[in-house]
Amino acid sequence: MNTALQRHWENVYTTRDVSKVGWYQETPFMTLSLLKKIGSMSKDCIIDVGCGASTFSDALLELGYRDITLLDLSMRALEIIKKRLGVNADVPSYWVGDICTFSSEKLFDVWHDRAVFHFLQKEEEQQAYLQTLYKALSPQGHAIIGTFAVEGPDSCSALPVRQYNEERMKNTVREYFDILEVIEETHITPSGSQQRYCYFVLKPI
Fold it and tell me: CATH says 3-8+28-204 is which class?
């Protein structure tokens, strides 16, 4: 595990108000609409990788999902979610770790990532991620991956990111996945600025 990177994110979630960070969403409308579009049901096994302190788990619980796995480098981020979920805190499974080295005995019907993939700068990191995803996703499962679009920021939380459009993503994932859907979104940050995102729905080849 990249301990320097882990320290970075622990510091972010220890020192900053999570409702004020640039990526904060009160409700993850785009992800929820894509869940509906792929026909996901509440019985599905779902993982949110690089979940941070996202409200996605709250929304899943409201929809009746119970087989939820949350993974992040930051233990503090997961603690924030646990505290916020209150009586439902014991429903999700919590994992502290690097998604590129994550392994699970269960297969996931839905893999959700709005925070990790665009941080991966090296091809070997991208390939490790995609191999992990391919092994962890059920044959009929879907991955929903959000990245900054080509018109979006080139950094986030003082770290460089890679921007994607359909062509760039297709060239990156083509050994493992087909792209079923590409949707661009303008995210309004808590400070009122605009960020261009691109969401991809992937299915194993």
Answer: alpha beta
